[in-house]
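Researcher: Let's continue the batch. This sequence belongs to Signal recognition particle receptor FtsY, and it's 300 residues. Same format as the previous ones, please.
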Amino acid sequence: FQSLQFSLKKTKNYLEKKIKKIFFSNQENNHLFESIEEMLLLSDFGVNTTANIIKSLKKEIHKNNTADKSEIFLILKKILLNILNKSSEKKTKINQKKPKIILIVGVNGVGKTTTIGKLAYKLKKSGNSIMLAAGDTFRAAAVDQLQIFGKKNKVPVIYNRIGTDPSAVIYDSIQAAKAKKIDVLIADTAGRLHNKQHLMEELKKIIRIIKKYNLSSSPEITLVIDACSGQNTLQQVKLFNNTINVNNIIVTKLDGTAKGGIIFAISDQFSIPINYLGFGEKIYDLQEFNKQKFIEFLFE
Ligand code: GDP
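Model: Same format as before. Here are the structure tokens for Signal recognition particle receptor FtsY:
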């Protein structure tokens, strides 16, 4: 958790300054709600989630009949934790047989391929045999990059020529993973959003192929989003979730932003579990998302 803490410093420093000013200064604050609202909006909580938080805050303050700023701060912290807890409610049970298949989806540049390298490292370290599938057959760089991560982790990578049907690569990799009795197959996919319709059809086809050739078991669909993309990410979650039912989310590039608020916006509006946070380009820069610790660190 320490390295994640280090990477979240930007977000923390930013919030800390605002929180100190709002809750712990001797100054009279006649505009408490406006100040909190501004802090949340500027931290990328988004308009809807900010409005929800302010509404809950007013309700709780009324219920507790308090005007004490340090008490209000604790109430706010609790509301924020409740928002993060919403994301555990939607945990879906995935019918999976060996090999477990994790399908990594998301738009170009969010960090899909890098995240696959990190996940492979983590899952291998905890004792799983891993195989990677280069399902982004659109970009040569994506295939090359996956091979580099394969070498680093000493895990096999199944790939095909650029331009081939990604479903064919997925089919080949399922066969190879079965033959080698692999525990977890992690599949990369394309993310060219300028051709949304085509991309979504391609992803649906990949999922059909997986169900058909992997003993009817579903893939775990993991959406990767970039914390630096701000409110755009909400549109991405909506698009992918509406078409292919996302099981969980990985948020990357938390080291590059002072706006960790997007994590709260996603939990609040989609209730999709956030499994991991990515905070750097190195293979070990991925941490399981611990809600309690995350809140404690940001608002301690
Ligand atoms: P893809 O197009 O979604 O597969 O994205 P890539 O994995 O190629 O990543 C795009 C860029 O973001 C690369 O330069 C990565 O090194 C970088 N990147 C990925 N994850 C992180 C992260 O957590 N933090 C930082 N700072 N950079 C990242």
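Researcher: Any comment?
Model: The chain has a mean pLDDT of 89.
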